[in-house]
Amino acid sequence: MSDYFEIMRRAEGRRVVRPMARKAKVRIEGDGVHELAREELVKLVQRVFLFPHEEKRQAVLFLGVDHGTGCSSVCARAGEALAAHVEEAVCLVDANSHTPSLHLMFDLQNLRGLTDALSRPEPIKQFVQQIRGSNLWVLPFGQRCLDFSATRTLDRFRARMEELRTTFPYVLADVPPINKSGEALHLTRYVDGVILVLESNFTRRVAARRAKESLDSANARLLGAVLNKRTFPIPNFLYERL
Question: Are 154 and 188 in contact (CB under 8 A)?
Answer without folding.
Answer: no
